[in-house]
Structure formats: C-alpha cells, structure tokens
Amino acid sequence: MSEDVLAKVYEYLTPGLPVVPIAQGAEAVVFTSEKHPYLPNSGKFILKYRPPKRYRHPSIDKALTKHRTIGEARLLTKLFLIEGLKVPKLIACDAYNGYLWLEFLGEELPHGKGFSNLKNFLWMYATDDGDPYCSIVEETLKKVGQQIGLLHWNGYCHGDLTSSNIVLSRSGKNETSWQPYLIDFGLGSTTDSVEDKGVDLYVLERAIISTHSAHAEAYNEWLLKGFSEIYKRYGDAGEVKLKEVTKRFQEVRLRGRKRSMIG
Amino acid sequence: MIVSRFPQFPHYEISIALYEDVTNVEELRAKANSSLPFALINASLVFSVEQLYSAVYRVLIEHTYNKIQTASFSSECLLRLSASTKVSESQKFGLKYPSNRIICVNIEETTDDSIERPDETIFELVKGKSAVLEDENLSKKCDADTLRKIYKLDQTFQPERPDEFSRALVNAIQLRGL
Amino acid sequence: MVNLNAVAPGGGREYYVALGLEGSANKLGVGVVKHPVVGKHEGGDFSYDCESQILSNVRDTYITPAGEGFLPRDTARHHKNWCVRLIKQALEEAGIQNAAKDLDVICFTKGPGMGAPLHSVVVAARTCSLLWGVPLVGVNHCVGHIEMGREITKAVDPVVLYVSGGNTQVIAYSEKRYRIFGETLDIAIGNCLDRFARTLRISNYPSPGYNIEQLALNCKKKDTLLELPYTVKGMDLSMSGILAYIDNLAKDLFRDNRKNRQLFDRDSDEAKISVEDLCFALQENLFAMLVEITERAMAHVNSNQVLIVGGVGCNLRLQEMMQQMCQDRANGQVHATDERFCIDNGVMIAHAGLLQYRMGDFVKDLSETVVTQKFRTDEVYVAWRE
Q: Residue A182: exposed, middle, or buried by beta-carbon count in 10 A (0-12, 13-18, 19+)?
C-alpha cells in the first residue's frame, strides 16, 4: 500500500481515529477501525477509501471519486430495502473525499482458516477433517444462490461476484447456520440486462471452479438451486425470466464472458 | 445533556439534550431563527440517537469539505436531518409544528480538543424536564408514520427490528443532496 | 516444455526467414524478419527474446483527404496497387535474391479487419506462395502486435493494452491463450479519434490521431477541463456516447451557436472553448478510461507491467498516463514501441507468423487461407508459450 495514500488517510482521520489497512483493490483501499465515526460505540467498522489517481486530470478524478462513492452508497441503501437481501450497513458517506464507512461483517474462522468469506469457508470444509458435501455447506451455498437471485430478480447486478465478495456471518460462535452477505458493490449497477446477470453467475462459477475444482460441480449446482428458488416464487413470470437468465448463463459459459466482436 | 466530540473532528464540541413537557414552546419558536445559537429539533421526528448523530456528522462533513447551505450550524442540522433538499421542508424538523418534546443541539468550534466541564447552562432557556437521550426514550414516542412519509419509506418496507428502521433513516441522511 | 526449434529452417540455414504481409486497414505493410536458431529456445518460454533481426520494414498508408474516412473498396484498391512494389522492395532491402530458397514462410493477416483490404493482401500472399513453393501461415492481427511488442520491449508477461483504429482490448496471457479482460463495448478508440478528426476537418496526414495529439498539446487552458461523459463499465468501456457528445459540441462551435453556454460566454458572446481544448478534453477523458480498465486487469492478475501496442499506442500522453499509474501501483513499468511497430506493419505479422510456423502451424490447404473480419484474440492457440 502506497505510503502517500496511508499518510493522506491518517491525516484526514486525525490521530483520534486510528485505522488498520486490510486490503487494496484497483480502485479502493479498505481499513478497519475500532471507533465509530459519530457514535461512542466501540466495535469493528470498515472504512473504504477511493484515493485520488494521479494519472488522470484532477477534475475527472474528483468527479469520478465522488460519483463512485455515492453510487456505491446509493446501491447499498436501495439493496437494504429489498426484503431478504443481506448487504453491509452504510454508516456514513463522505463523497467529497471518497470515504465510505460500513459495518464490519464476518469473523475469523476457527483453526486459522482465515476470514469468513465464501472462499475460505469452502476451503475449510475441503481440508482433511471437513466434509465438503455436508449439509452445512449445501445449505450455505443455497443461501448464497438465494442472495444472488434476490439481487437479480430486483434488477441489480453485482459486477464482481467472486467468492471473496461473499461474506458469511453467524449470530454466535457456536452457531452452525451461516448467513451470506454480498459485499463490495463498487462495480454494481441497476440492470435489466440478461447478459449482466449471466456474467455475474459465470464469474462466481469460475471462481468456485478455480479454487475448489474437486467439488465445483456440486457447489455450483447448489448455488443455482438457491438462485432458482427465488425466481420460482413468482409463478409463470418468474419461470420465464429464470429460463432467460439460465440460458444466457449457458451461452456466456460457452464463449467466455466476452461477446464476439468485429475486429 | 451529552457532550462529545467526533474522533475525526476533535475541535468541535457537540452538546445534545432531550427535554420533555416543555412549557415555553412559543417563546422558543419566536427566538429560534434569530437569537438562539443552538438548534431546536422536534423530538417526535427523531427515532434514534444514531439518526441524530449521523445528521450532525453530515453537518461537519459539509462544513469542512464542502459548504454548508444554510446560515448556521443550527439551521444546517435541520437541513441534514431532512430528506428533502428544500430548506423550507427541513423546518418540519424544527418547531414549525409545535411539539413539547424538544432536542437541543449545539455545535461549537473550539481551539482545543478536550472537553472541560460542560456548560450546563447553554440550554437553560428551554423550560422543560430533562430526559435521557437514548433510543428507548426516542423511539417509543416517535411519530414513525410521519417519518415514513418524510423519508418515503412505503409499506413494503417492514423492518423486523427498530435498528433496521433507524438504518433506513441513516441511509437517507447520508445520501441526501448527493 | 515448449520447443521453438521443432521445425528446422529450410535451405540448410542456421536461421529462419519470414515474409509478412499486413493490410487489415489502410496501412499496407511488408516486412522480412530473421530468427537465428538459438539453443535456449528448445526448452522454456523464451518467445519474447527471439533475437530477431528486422531485415526490412516497408509500408504505404492510404491517406484520404481531410474530413473523409477510408472506405473498404478504395483501400483494397490501394493495397492491390502497391503490394507488388512493396514486396519487391522489402525483399530487395532484405537481400533476398531467391525467394523460393531463402524464405521459410509467408505470413499474412488472416483477420480481424476490413474484408476487402484483407482479401487483396491474401491474394498476393497466396500468389507468392504458389509462385515460390513457400508455405503460408495466417496470423491474427492482434497477436502480431502483441508478439512484436514483447520482442521489441523484452517484456516477459505484461498486461497488454491493444489500442488502434479497429481494436481496444486489455489482454493478459493465461494457459495458451491471450485472454481478453476488458474491451470496448462499441467502437475502438482509434476510430473514435479518427471520426472526431473528421468532424474537425483536420488533416489525415500522417494520421488523424497524431494531429489530435498535437492540437491537445497546444491547449492553453489545461487546468480547466471540459466535462465529458465517463463511460467505464466494470472491466469494459464504451465510447460512442462520448463521440456523439463531443461531435455535437464541435458542430455548435463551428456553427457559432451562441446559445450553447458551454462554448460561448453569456455576456461577451465570445468562444470560451477552442478546438485545442476539445482535443485535450477528449484525450484526457478517453485515456483515463483506458488506464482505469488496464489497472483493473493488473489488479486481477497481480501484474505491474503494461505493454501498449497498436497505433494509438504511439500517443505520448497515453504512455505518460499509463506510466504514472504503473508507478503508483507497486512501482510498475510501461513498455511501448515507436511508430515503426506501433502502427500496423508487415514485420509483426512475419514475426508472429514465424513463431506459429516454428511450432508446426502452417497452411496445408489453400481453403484455410480465407480471411475473416471477426477474429478474436482469444481464439488463437498460443503454442509457443508455456
């Protein structure tokens, strides 16, 4: 993580609000904080920052940072209103500087298996003492499918649906039932496009195949089951739309995510 | 009265107090726009502590990195609580319609970053019973239906718990005007 | 294990020689390339270092008058008129006296590109092949750019930004394919710039893009930037909307449409924006979008190297922006070639074709030499890399 970026963040937050960097993407860096920006609560919170990019003209940069920060925040607020859909809570938005405060989801998996995203979760069950086909895994994957189904049915796409962008949370350390949350909507959008939805499904399928190839077939089947369940709640209209999406998903699979284009 | 500072804005002292059974509402309404340095907020439109503080946070962000759109912190607090971009609409959160439950908010820029003995007298003009500023007190007596109308939360949104309702309000407040 | 020496050179030589013919757009390029037989190529992926020698590189560009684009039929005619001349010149400069003996393979652009021009070049290729009894190899135009770029810059495994009049793609190599990570959803960037140049009626010599670059450099007001739509969508981008927008502004400017408050001052009625400002804004906007999708691909594959190929890659501002991004991103680096290789040329076709040939790929039947307008970069099986 660039020294400049860190320095800028520490200056913005002042020493009164210490944060710890945890991840860096192409566009944003993510920190955790133990202090809430405006409530006296302590806990764990996420700060997502879009730093300025020096390569682009400052006016493009400022406008884009603001637009992207607001866009992501707005998506989160709209998605929250969809019943059954689980996304992180928006705590605060400073669009002028590119900061988003979000709730912290997930936990450290036992035995050092890492953070509770879907990728590590499946990995945990794939190791020697776990049963990769147990009912917990099946149930969880179906729930993940349902989350995506809810997202798509309501006219949204995620845009970057990898297994690291699905976080599992549970109500207590001894609970066996996990609730998946979709996170990181930086590339998300509202969409009516069957193509976008097909690509979402394809990206996740590829992510699962590449990291859990031995069990990928069953896993992807469970995902689709959960996904279809949502569409099937809506009778004939739902069935029609479901067919459209799955058909396009097959097509995307065959050609890879990119359309054929004139050279 | 609760006095606090946001960790990111150590030079701003924020004092907030909840008063019930206020007897001099008319007097306060008359003085509100001109001489009172603090904001008077209709407590029945405040559902949670979080809703209130998220609006104050917004005031400080706008003040520091953009520009506040009203004349003072007091009027800006009302604007940031409001779901509309129209200043006139935000008056609803003030004492436009009389209410005997009032929340006072004072934001003061100080040269240092520590809280000394809080000034208990800043809200002494308000003649009412001091109540604890906490979610229980607020949500029970809050006019949730009016809030729903103001924030355009229709009946399809049925939160299972109070914190979900509060979350919807915070969402709207954080994005208002952006 | 990749063995690039699997097929031996002909004529008892210790080196390979290839003739390359390129004509997918308005540039007709002919080049001759020599690859020495080198021990290290027997095992391992050294295709970025063939120690190639460029024996000749000639080109003629079909340039239309200002304000006009080039049409397939006229372009094809130009290529037909020039190919014999250029092939002879290339062979002569390369010191090739007996083509039948001295050439291992004749490489031609199979696609993608404009149909008629591609076709006129392949006819020349087939004729030479039949005349001299030299095998043919069909090359993907994009792969030609990539392989030439790797060879010239010695970049081992960079993310490739391929930007030209007909293509805009972000590519990364993985498991025998050049995978497309991001691309344009509608028009190519070179096409966008060329069409705007037509709107501005600026000269097409030496190329419309070059002239836009010069105008942008001469912009006096670089601090304020005209706001244009910014249309990156995930890993892809779209440019037709921006073109339509800026075309309208330019037309209003020329028509003296005082009502347009972006262009004309409300009180003094003077033009606030010049042609240079428009070019500057267009470049800054389009290039920022390209750099962004390139950065996304780099994050995805964990790379900090970028290779820019294709005609638009000659643009120094684009190179500068890309360099800034790479530097800020874990001290990475940008690789670019100069106009001899950025712009379509025959050498890149010869070089890439020779790599294919050395892996045993060449035309067995003339029916395989049909050209095609659509030919995606990821359709090519990259046998010469691990």
A: buried
Residues of chain A with CATH 3.30.200.20: 3-103
Q: What is the dihedral of CA A38, A40, A46, A50, to 10 degrees?
A: 30
Check A96 against B66: CB less than 8 A apart. yes
B69-97: pLDDT as tens digits: 898 999 999 999 998 888 888 989 998 88
Question: Which of C225, C298, C304, C334 is the best residue to mutate to test the A interface, defined by the most A CB atoms within 10 Å of its own CB?
Answer: C225
Every domain of chain A with CATH number 1.10.510.10 lies at 110-262
Burial A32-44 (b: 16+ CB within 10 A, else e): ebebbbbbeeeee
- For C111, the closest of A26, A54, A263 (CB atoms) is A263
Contact A81 B61 (CB under 8 A): no
Does residue C71 register a pLDDT over 70? yes
The span from the CA of A196 to the CA of A165, in Å, is: 17
Which chain B residues contact residue A92 at CB under 8 A? Answer: 54, 57-58, 61, 174
- Pull the structure tokens for residue B76: 């800006």
Number of neighbouring beta carbons within 10 Å of residue B86 = 9
Structure tokens at A151: 């997202």
**Complete DSSP assignment for C10-62:** STT-SEEEEEEEE-SSSEEEEEEEEEE--GGGGSS--TT----EEEEEEEEE-
In chain C, list all ranges with CATH 3.30.420.40. Answer: 10-150+344-379, 155-341
Asked if A90 lies within 8 A of B170 by C-beta distance, the reply is yes
Answer whether B76's CB lies under 8 Å from B59's CB. yes
User: Quick check: is A192 catalytic?
Assistant: no
Please list the ranges in chain A whose pLDDT falls under 50: 261-263
Tell me whether strands B12-20 and B2-4 are parallel, antiparallel or unpaired. antiparallel
Task: Note the pLDDT of residue C328.
Answer: 87
Cβ–Cβ below 8 Å for C230 and A64: yes
Q: What is the pLDDT of residues A198-253, one digit of tens each?
A: 999 999 998 898 888 888 999 999 999 999 999 999 999 999 999 999 999 999 88
Q: Identify the pLDDT of residue B48.
A: 96
What does DSSP say about strands C159-163 and C305-309: parallel, antiparallel, or unpaired?
parallel
The CATH classification number of C10-150+344-379 equals 3.30.420.40
Give the predicted TM-score (pTM) of the model. 0.89
* Ramachandran category for residue C180: left, alpha or beta (phi over 0 → left; psi -120 to 50 → alpha): beta
* CATH superfamily entry for domain A3-103: Phosphorylase Kinase; domain 1 (3.30.200.20)
In the CATH scheme, what architecture does the domain B2-175 have?
2-Layer Sandwich (3.30)
Please give the CATH topology (third level) of the domain spanning A110-262: Transferase(Phosphotransferase); domain 1 (1.10.510)
- Helices A194-211, A135-153: crossing angle, 10 deg rounding: 160
The per-residue pLDDT for range C104-119, each reduced to its tens digit, is: 999 999 999 999 999 9
Helix ranges (DSSP H) in C133-169: 141-153
Active-site choice (A160, A184, A192, A200): A160
Topology annotation, domain C155-341: Nucleotidyltransferase; domain 5 (3.30.420)
B 60-119 residues with CB below 8 A of A? 61, 65-66, 113
pLDDT value of position A260 = 52
Across the interface, of A67, A187, A260, the residue whose CB is closest to C374 is A260
To the question of whether residue C162 is assigned a binding role by annotation, the answer is yes
**Chain-chain contact of C225 with A260 (C-beta, under 8 angstroms):** no
What is the chain B residue with the closest CA to A34? B7
Calculate how close chain C gets to A42, using CA atoms only, in Å: 33
Q: B157 CB near a chain A CB, below 8 Å?
A: yes
Q: Mutation target for A interface from C292, C344, C377: give the one with most A CBs within 10 A.
A: C292
Q: Are C253 and C263 in contact (CB under 8 A)?
A: yes
pLDDT given for residue A261 in this prediction: 43
Complex ipTM tops 0.90: yes
